[in-house]
Amino acid sequence: MSAQTSYSIKQPIAYAGMVYAQAPHDIISRDVETVAGIPFGVAVSRGTDLERQVVLGGATGFTGITIRSLDREGAVNTAAIQYNEKETAGVIRDGYVWAVCPSGCNPGDSVNYVDATGVIDSGTAVSGETQLDGAQWDTVAAAGELAVIRLNSLDTTAGS
Fold this sequence. Notes:
- By secondary structure, the protein is mostly beta strands.
- The protein contains no helices and 11 strands.
- It has strands at residues 26-32, 38-39, 43-46, 53-56, 62-66, 82-83, 88-101, 110-114, 120-122, 129-137, 145-151.
């Protein structure tokens, strides 16, 4: 009997929305108000119920970044790799999380997101984007690759 020494498919280092390291972090649960659902690893803001709900993106009331749901591992359809309407989403407000960096990023780069989609990026926020105070990219990534975001000093007035 011989052991397999190579594999045709490489396991990714991480997934969007995966919590990075066991550093201290603040993760809350919120109900999804967005009808179309919310993918993992994107920005969410307060919904109509400020204490319990979140919506995708949003220009005000940033709540945090959705974390990956482990009960969706191995899922292949879109509805299973996101939080759907009325489901409970895990949202990280303080700590380290993996996210896709569409424009590429370097440690210390600022973090912003597209208000309409919650997609996170680096650089100076332009019209239709919100810059996250106290957040920065923590690792290097080429355009479209995963990198780590360090979130801190977030607005936590929505309760816990």
